[in-house]
Amino acid sequence: MAALYSLHGSRPAPLPFRITLPDGFTRTDPDTFTEDEIVAAGFMGPFTEPTYDPATERLDWVDGAYAVSALPPPPAQPRWVDFFAMLMADASVNALLGALLQAAPAVYGGLVVGLQKASEGDTLVFLNSWHAAQGMGLVSDELIATMQHLAALHDLPQLFIDQLQPQ
Q1: Domain residue limits, the chain
Q2: Contact 102/144 with Cβ under 8 angstroms?
Q3: Which of 11, 87, 114, 120 could form a disulfide with 125 if both were Cys (CB 3.0 to 4.6 A apart)?
Q4: CA distance 112 to 100
Q5: Which residues lie across from 110 on neighbouring strands?
Q6: Is 155:76 a contact under the CB 8 Å cutoff?
Q7: How far apart are CA 68 and CA 9, in angstroms?
Q8: H-helix segments, the chain
């Protein structure tokens, strides 16, 4: 492996083919650079990457030194189906759906279909229907809080959770 050098504190890399010296002259062919020329061109090193396991660790360059740290856990995957099942068991959601079925069947259908589409990554139909129900005065602040709480419990995207608020 080629020796690694840091230019002005950046993450170490192999020397470039051409370096510029303080007097404006350039040198080519890293195999012929002297240590004095390398330093004069603004490089520090050589550095050696420490051994680490890329499957469980990451290698960072922090304040002029390598740092090995554990990879963060992968983000939780949204559990839309479980969220939908929890909603169907919630009395306040069922009260909303019942009111919508009577007052606005199209909005009711939009919520039901929208939940299915949301589980496939498309939240637009659900949110449009949800906001229509809010506009009709059928969605209480308590129901919004319940929906946001359940959505967070099921690792749904924060943008979706935020959009449950009235627009």
Answers
A1: 4-70, 80-162
A2: no
A3: 114
A4: 11
A5: none
A6: yes
A7: 18
A8: 35-40, 80-89, 91-103, 105-119, 124-135, 141-153, 158-162
The band of 1, judged by pLDDT with boundaries at 50, 70 and 90, is low
Tell me how far apart the alpha carbons of residues 56 and 2 are, in angstroms, rounded to a whole number: 25
Task: Encode pLDDT of 63-103 as tens digits.
Answer: 999 999 999 999 899 998 899 888 888 898 888 888 888 98
Q: Are 41 and 28 in contact (CB under 8 A)?
A: no
Q: Please write the tens of the pLDDT for every residue from 36-62.
A: 999 999 999 999 999 999 999 999 999
Q: CA 108 to CA 100: how far, in whole Å?
A: 5
Q: Which residue has the tokens 């919630």?
A: 90
Q: What is the rounded distance in angstroms from the CA atom of residue 30 to the CA atom of residue 73?
A: 40
Closest CA to 12 of 65, 51, 58, 52: 65
Q: Which amino acid is at 81?
A: V
